[in-house]
Amino acid sequence: MYAWIWRRLPGHGPQRALVALGLILAAVAILWYVIFPWLEPKLQFDRGVVENGVTAPPSSPSVPG
Amino acid sequence: MRVLIRGFGELCITAGLVVLLFVTYTLWGTGRYTRAQQEQLSDQLQRTWRQPQVTTEKITLGSGIAQIRIPRFGKKYRYVVVEGVDLSDLRKGPGHYPGTALPGQVGNFVVSGHRTTYSAPFNRAAELRSGDEILIDTRDKQYVYEVTSRRVVQPTAMEVTAPVPFHPGRKPERRLLTITTCHPKYSAAQRLIIFGELVRELPRATATDQG
């Protein structure tokens, strides 16, 4: 897959490596600033709110961490 | 066939790297949001404190109600405590359990906060020792609480938030502070609870280094 992408990058040698680096950075930026902020609140593995919400009375606030 | 297998392997490696990046994001990247929110909340709080007191002042969920400082965690340690302990509230900073006592009142002033992620306000909570000061700044007063004890409880132990901890229903006489956070670090299996009691109150104007 990556070999296929590499062959289709424009330029030669170092120039091609720079383009590849740019693509990687763009992918990381999209993950970090767009996808992760959207995804993180849905996972909540650090907080333990769900187990508490189930066991505690509805009026009681949860104890997140 | 070989191309397929190689492609699958590459996908797996990519997925692993993305997961690692996600872990990095949750632990450190989420703090950026909290810092921005804290800055905003702090400005708002200072502004309301400068204005004359309104008797009908209402506490809205998600707004700042006080400032917490813990000298043990360094001079720069300062968070605005927001009202509410919903996920969205705790992303902004430590949250006060609605319905529990307000700072300085008789009863239990209960604050919850993240141990990891979102700036991790209570990351070092386990380092607190008996006698350590926890300073709560409000409009007029600075309340000085001292840590009295520490417990690790199950996440369902709501009795620690009672006006008299562990004795729900009993009439409170003392002015207490309770901090709840995750335990152990990076997990939500248990809760670390820090108990404190009010030892003195000072006028805020002279007690804080900022106006």
Automatic annotation (TrEMBL), chain A:
This is Uncharacterized protein. It comes from Actinomadura craniellae. The lineage of its organism: Bacteria, Bacillati, Actinomycetota, Actinomycetes, Streptosporangiales. Keywords: Membrane, Transmembrane, Transmembrane helix. The chain crosses the membrane at residues 17-39.
